[in-house]
């Protein structure tokens, strides 16, 4: 019996065709489901990136001199959405926070 991915309450689930949550009257195309999944992944990655940026926001205060390494790190974080693997980033795709 075939399975398909659906989104229920914002969660991605794999269900069988005979699952009661499956609707035979309204069935979004797999491409629409895939697009929604991609948007959810992008949103999760942006949230993680924003958290990392926020953790270093203090280095941009006017009374702090931001190091070149920190500038490079923060720029790399801001540029993540243009990364070739976006939003399917691996741990090696994320920039390393300077010490």
List keywords for this structure.
single chain, 99 residues, alpha+beta, two-stranded antiparallel ribbon, 2 strands, 37% helix
Structural summary, described in words:
This protein has 99 residues and is of the alpha+beta class. The chain is 37% helix and 12% strand. The protein is built from 2 helices and 2 strands. It has a two-stranded antiparallel ribbon with strand order 1-2. A hairpin with a 2-residue loop joins strand 1 and strand 2. The radius of gyration is 20 Å and the shape is elongated.
* Radius of gyration of CA atoms, rounded to a whole number: 20 Å
Q: How many distinct beta strands?
A: 2
Report strand order across the widest sheet.
Answer: 1-2
Inertia-based shape: elongated
How many strands, which pairing sense, and closed or not: the largest β-sheet?
A: 2 strands, antiparallel
- Strand fraction equals 5-15%
Integer average pLDDT: 88
Helix content: 25-40%
């Amino acid at each position: 019996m075939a399975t398909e991915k659906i989104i229920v309450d914002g969660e991605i689930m794999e269900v069988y065709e005979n699952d009661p949550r499956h609707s035979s009257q309204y069935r979004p195309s797999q491409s629409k489901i895939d697009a929604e999944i991609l948007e959810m992944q992008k949103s999760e990655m942006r949230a993680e990136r924003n958290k990392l940026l926020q953790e270093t926001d203090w280095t941009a205060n006017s009374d702090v001199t931001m190091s070149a390494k920190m500038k490079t790190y923060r720029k790399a974080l801001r540029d993540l959405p243009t990364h070739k693997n976006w939003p399917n980033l691996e741990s090696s795709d994320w920039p390393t926070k300077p010490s």
